[in-house]
Amino acid sequence: MGYIKFQTKTAGEQIVDGKRILNVNYDKSNGNYIEFILDFVSSTGNQPIQLRLSAVNPGSITEQTLVQYNNAVIAAQNEAVVVVNPLHGQEINNILYNPAP
After folding, report:
1. DSSP reduced 3-state for 59
2. Which residue stretches of 1-101 are H helix?
3. Within 13 A of 21's CA, how many CA atoms are on the CB side?
4. Rounded Cα–Cα distance for residues 35 and 52 (Å)
5. SS3 78
């Protein structure tokens, strides 16, 4: 399993181990972020451990973005590094580990 690489505006280039990603979600109600679910902590009621990728342009994250990141996770099964180039207007601003709900 390989790695997912993407650029953020505030934190620069980020690399995530593809084998750690259990699921990819996005903010369907507002389109403000995409999330990688990495694990669940049973001692806290199965709370997810997540990385949240916030959009530069609020409301710009769509199902098309979700498909792009899901495809990157799938491709990382056979490649060393998969680079995710954001779709126009869907750039990532920053990345947060376990953000508050």
Report:
1. coil
2. 63-75
3. 26
4. 4
5. coil
Query: Three-class SS of residue 42?
Result: helix
Among residues 26, 42, 43, the alpha carbon closest in space to that of 34 is found at 26
Give the length of the chain. Answer: 101
Q: Does the structure show a pLDDT above 80 at 100?
A: no
**Structure confidence by residue, pLDDT tens digits, 9-67:** 999 999 999 999 999 999 999 999 999 999 888 776 778 889 999 999 999 999 999 99
pTM for this structure?
Answer: 0.88
Assigned token pair, 44: 């806290």
Match 């994250």 to its residue by tokens: 61
